[in-house]
Amino acid sequence: MSMGIQRAIHMNNPFTFRKAIIVNKVEETPNTHTYTLKCDGGLKALPGQFNMLYVYGLGEAPISLSNIPIFRGGHTLLEHTVRVMGAVTRAIISRLEIGSLIGIRGAYGNGWPLRDAEGKDVAIVGGGIGIAPLRPIIKYIEHCREKFGRINILFGAKSPRDMPYKYELNNYNTISNTKLLLSSDTPAEEWTHYTGFVTDLIEYIDVNVKNSVAFVCGPEAMMRVAVKKLLNKGFKKEYVYISLERRMRCGIGVCGTCQFGHYFVCRDGPVFRYSDVEDYLWVEGI
Amino acid sequence: MYVGRVSMDKNGMCNNHGNLFIGSSEDLKVVVEFLQRELGSAKLFGYRHHNGRIAFSEINNINEIFVALTDIQKPGYYRASSGYRFRHSFSSPKVFLLPPEYVILTVSRDYDILESSSSFQELTAIFFGIKPCDRKAIDILDRILYGRSPVYTTRRNAVRAIVVEECLEPGETCFCSTVNAGPTISSGFDIAYARLYGDLLVFRYGSSLGEKILGKVGLQRAQESHVKMYLEMVNRAISMMRGRIPNISEIQKALMEKVSAKPFWEEISSKCVGCGNCNYVCPTCFCTEIEDRVENGFSTRVGVWLGCLTYTYGLVAGGHFRQELYTRYRHFILHKFLFYPKQVGDIGCVGCGRCITWCPLGIDLRETLSRIAEVKSQ
């Protein structure tokens, strides 16, 4: 307890958002759109991080980056894939068009540990809208392909119709030393890929599991199965990463509503090393 | 002037009694007045008895400081009565530092930000008569929110002096000494006082500001007999609370074993109705929801307390991470005793007993903790 000067903290209000304009919209499925947002100045965001998107009068929703941001001509272009889940996302899908405004603040969270994955093989396992936060990993790896070993991409959706990024998935096959496996939970005509859960595809992974990193995102139940199967397959639990979702209101670790065990998912996550959360992941409602 | 955030020592007991002074309730008012003047007409915040409520709020007039008031607290029961053993009420200094409702932003339809909350910049405040348990709660909140939450940070910075009232007789629901949060205090305050009996108070300073003020007021040094009485009463208070909860490390060990014991948690939470009162009266609970309120073409983003016992906690668009009540009750316990230590380096319970007193069902946290420690993992 010192005499000390009053700690002068010149604190900008971290809840202040920036105005962004929607400059492109891709209808992935009827209830899932990918928006390109343009905002003034720079906004640094790593694969696996998220932004809080604000809709006037309704509130914010934490939405992952679905591509690597581009900084050009004093503006940043950001991509977010949004699926109708609640009020904010419904408003985004049903109301916002090219030219519409939206509020954005971020980026928050830790992101995928891509540096640690350098020199290793990479398995990417995504289910449903959980594919969105994994997509920037693929874009990143494409940019510096030589830094990574063999890549396996396993994407699944409820039906072929629900699969996002259909227009570019085949391009992933053209990335060198890369295998793409797709699944649909439900049978569909013209579906030439696997029918069943995406986690079933884990047994077809052909990377060197002893020197591999796995990145997993999807519904929590799917991630639990994926973790089990990846470990059975021989992946090390220190190299299996999952991206979690929780109720989030602030993004900066002060609202307390995203707690998962002792972690604040918004600040300590959303990406967690499985070995750091294995005590919690199997406990209902922790 | 005390401004820093410090960690509490083991039991808040002061080893050096050379700086003990004695005085009356009138002297206490003089001490406060001197302190206010020293800090340039600082505003006083403390417990105020008004319209039948005892709330932590601004004290406009020094004569609003009550001297003849006792509280009677039991599980699910609170009454004010005459006497001089006041502990606390439903409200804690948290209502000043992190108000139940506060404006974060005001936004126009065009996404222009019209107002950003920073209105407390100019305020100078003195916390008066807060209890050692609540002082420790501020340390805990500091470690979560200070420098991160704008409302908390500006209001915390406004607090320029802290006057603590030590407790020489614990309430029935109190257990501060078992969690190292009282009944006395050894750091993190400017002036501390305790009522020996009736109108005889002992004063102590905990900072150079406090020393200066007590010197200016010219209080008498306590005599050996006063010191002896003070220490005896402190020890008596500690012994009264001894055993009210099991040993913390036993609780923690048992909690780790029982995390997944669903039937145990369902049973132990079966009386809980999920009202969240325990969260709102808890001096360390900080969880917040942000609401948009639209009026006259503007949307005001408002922070409001959100209790983890309430259904909303864990609810997300398209699902619920804590739908069953037992998971929310368990989170309250796990957070206080297992997760706070990992988040801030100390448990998140200060033994104030408010969650017991203000639970409409009278659910007793101490009983829950005893059951946790006694029953073998299921």
Automatic annotation (TrEMBL), chain B:
Protein name: 4Fe-4S ferredoxin-type domain-containing protein
Alphabetized SUPFAM superfamilies for the sequence: 4Fe-4S ferredoxins
InterPro entries for this protein: 4Fe4S_Fe-S-bd (IPR017896), 4Fe4S_Fe_S_CS (IPR017900)
Upper classification of the organism: Archaea, Thermoproteota, Thermoprotei, Desulfurococcales, Desulfurococcaceae
GO terms assigned for molecular function: oxidoreductase activity
Top-level taxon of origin: Archaea
Pfam family, one: Fer4_22
Every 4Fe-4S ferredoxin-type domain range: 261-293, 339-368
